[in-house]
């Protein structure tokens, strides 16, 4: 009965995962995990070597559909397996006679928004959840220590966050006051053995072409150097180390995390989870409380201190623990109300209806976009640029999996640490002498670069530097000088290009303005905006760089025009530096 219930729950989850499965190529990390396992490559730190190895086996042995589809399906299978195993985990945690309450908890987790979303795309989170559930079950089941240690080693060979679950297991054994069975030396060996998968990183690095980007004979970008120090920095993800700040744990972040919990499970689910916690306390299940409570607290505390954009995904292990408490809550109510409590199935059903339409499930637009780009007559060895790494990931898939246009070079900010922004990327690309194309319209780049539309892309033909203009050399601030201007249009509309020269980093996003002054120095017309827009604001301007800032003022005016020009901060409207005045003749 238990096995049938577990398999049935997993199969039910799998049906809906397949229904919402992303069909093809994706952007961002899911796109990366579509091509990296297929070539047994190296993804972003810390490398996820076990996922890549298992994904390599799966993507080559399972012949159905595209590689992108196979890797999406890979996540769905692990997600469904996790849901099924959660039924067993609930049985071990609660040990009540009814079995259906544990299906309630498992399906609640299955249809929670974040886990469902990550189970239908190529991602690492469903496999990580599987190892966490397997580990918690093995500890509660009192399996021999070598088996528990081996599962822990597998979990750690996949995802570093698995370490957050080890302290709870130690306290579990201490609270239970029963020494785990098994030889300590064998347990240690079995724990360390899976970590050898990390050796795939230095072993595979020399044969992976995308880890070295040859821009010119004198310029090669090294994405992974393959020294021992590089290996340790990579495995420990030191490039993200600065994002872990314990002082970031504030009341507002804790409130936000609580709001996310409610969004995942609804208030009904949260209350049911609290009932489960209370039940474990009343029945003196101190060992289970220690294991799950410490694990939940460690995972939550880490996430509260970790300042990355997609931090909500890292809450999945904490949501898993809370779903176990929901199972316990359902079991507690079933123990008191009997089968009347089966009304609790409305919780996973409500989540299913609520989240079904919002789950990410389409990659067709991404495929069409890149299929179009790769069919264009792009010059051999051209560089394709975006300000967003996620948008460029599909190009790797088409090159490494499907063999399309391997000559094209993707560039984006932080492809290597020194290329911190789009300006540095474009400067490096132009210096290579290769043709450079931006894959989307990025309004604002025209302040520094000369762009022209080309078949839906934008070719970067050079920099603003070198254009002729009327020289002024008027100092506005320590960081900025008005180098000069050019009158572009004067009849019916005044269009003026201001040429700014940066002497030092500005360090903030400013607005510029032009005021046309009357005979008494009064403002009679003007224009103001943020030069560089969203993509190249003043905070990205480089020392020694020349920037072209175009202002348009409607109306008919008598020349010569007396202009006042300057900068201010937004939204405070506080002046930045000093205004300068000059005359413009037609």
Question: What features would you describe in this structure?
Answer:
This protein is an alpha+beta fold and 586 residues long. The chain folds into three domains: 2-356, no CATH class; 364-463; 470-584, Immunoglobulins (Immunoglobulin-like), CATH 2.60.40. It is built from 19 helices and 15 strands. The strands form four sheets. It has a five-stranded mixed sheet, with helices on both faces. It has a four-stranded antiparallel sheet with strand order 8-9-10-13, with no helix packed on it. Helix 9 (166-176) packs antiparallel against helix 14 and helix 14 (286-305) runs antiparallel to helix 15 (316-337). The longest helix is centred in the middle third of the chain and has 32 residues, at 251-282. The mean pLDDT is 93.
What's the SSE blueprint?
Layout: H1 2-19, H2 28-35, H3 49-61, H4 67-94, H5 100-110, H6 113-118, H7 125-140, H8 145-158, H9 166-176, H10 184-192, H11 200-204, E1 212-216, E2 219-222, H12 228-235, H13 251-282, H14 286-305, H15 316-337, H16 346-356, H17 364-375, E3 383-385, H18 389-400, E4 409-411, H19 422-431, E5 436-438, E6 449-454, E7 457-463, E8 470-477, E9 480-489, E10 493-502, E11 510-517, E12 523-529, E13 546-554, E14 561-569, E15 575-584
Parallel strand pairs: 3-4, 3-5
Antiparallel strand pairs: 1-2, 5-7, 6-7, 8-9, 9-10, 10-13, 11-12, 11-14, 14-15
Helix pairs in contact: 1-4, 1-5, 2-4, 2-18, 3-4, 4-5, 4-7, 4-15, 5-15, 5-16, 7-8, 8-10, 9-14, 13-14, 13-15, 14-15
């Amino acid at each position: 009965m238990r096995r049938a219930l577990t398999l049935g729950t997993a199969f039910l989850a799998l049906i809906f995962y397949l229904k919402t499965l992303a069909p093809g190529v994706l952007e961002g990390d899911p796109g990366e995990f579509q091509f990296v396992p297929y070539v047994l490559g190296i993804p972003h730190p810390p490398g996820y070597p076990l996922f890549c190895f298992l994904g390599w086996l799966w993507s080559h042995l399972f012949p159905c559909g595209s590689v992108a589809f196979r890797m999406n399906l890979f996540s769905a299978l692990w997600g469904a397996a996790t849901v099924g195993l959660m039924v067993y985990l609930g049985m071990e945690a609660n040990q009540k006679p009814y079995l259906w309450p544990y299906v309630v908890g498992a399906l609640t987790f299955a249809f929670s928004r974040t886990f469902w979303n990550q189970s239908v795309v190529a991602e690492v989170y469903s496999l990580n959840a599987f190892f966490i559930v397997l580990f918690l079950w093995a500890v509660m089941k009192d399996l021999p220590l070598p088996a528990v240690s081996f599962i822990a080693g597998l979990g750690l060979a996949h995802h570093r966050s698995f370490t957050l679950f080890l302290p709870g297991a130690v306290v579990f054994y201490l609270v239970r006051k029963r020494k785990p069975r098994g030889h300590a030396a064998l347990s240690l060996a079995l724990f360390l053995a899976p970590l050898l998968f990390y050796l795939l990183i230095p072993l595979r690095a020399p044969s992976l072409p995308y880890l070295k980007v040859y821009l010119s004979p004198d310029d090669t970008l090294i994405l992974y150097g393959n020294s021992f120090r590089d290996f340790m920095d990579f495995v420990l993800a030191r490039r993200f180390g600065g994002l872990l700040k314990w002082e970031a744990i504030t009341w507002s972040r804790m409130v936000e995390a609580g709001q996310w919990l409610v969004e995942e499970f609804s208030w009904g689910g949260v209350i049911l989870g609290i009932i489960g916690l209370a039940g474990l306390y009343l029945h003196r299940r101190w060992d289970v409380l220690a294991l799950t409570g410490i694990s939940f607290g460690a995972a939550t505390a880490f996430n509260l201190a970790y300042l990355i954009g997609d931090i909500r995904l890292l809450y999945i292990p904490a949501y898993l623990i809370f779903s176990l408490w929901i199972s316990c809550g359902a079991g507690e109510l079933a123990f008191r109300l009997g089968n009347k409590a089966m009304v609790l199935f409305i919780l996973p059903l409500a989540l299913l209806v609520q989240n079904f339409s919002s789950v990410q499930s389409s990659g067709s637009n991404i495929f069409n976009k890149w299929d179009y780009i790769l069919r264009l007559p792009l010059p051999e060895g051209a560089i394709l640029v975006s300000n967003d790494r996620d948008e460029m990931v599909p190009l790797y898939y088409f090159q490494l999996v499907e063999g399309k246009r391997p000559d094209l070079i993707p560039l984006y900010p932080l492809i290597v640490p020194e290329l911190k922004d789009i300006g540095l990327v474009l400067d490096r690309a132009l210096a290579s002498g290769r043709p450079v194309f931006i894959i989307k319209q990025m309004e604002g780049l025209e302040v520094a670069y000369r762009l022209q539309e080309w078949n839906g892309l934008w070719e970067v033909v050079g920099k603003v530097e070198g254009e002729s203009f009327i020289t002024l050399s008027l100092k506005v601030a320590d960081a900025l000088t008005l180098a000069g201007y050019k009158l572009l249009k004067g009849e019916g509309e005044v269009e003026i290009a201001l040429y700014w020269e940066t002497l030092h980093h500005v360090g903030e996003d400013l607005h510029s303005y032009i005021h046309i002054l009357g005979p008494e120095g009064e403002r009679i017309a003007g224009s103001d905006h943020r030069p560089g827009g969203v993509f190249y604001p003043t905070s990205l301007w480089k020392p020694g760089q020349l920037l072209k800032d175009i202002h348009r003022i409607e109306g008919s005016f008598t020349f010569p025009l007396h202009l006042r020009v300057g900068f201010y901060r937004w939204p405070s409207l506080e002046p930045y530096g000093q205004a300068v005045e000059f005359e413009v003749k037609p």
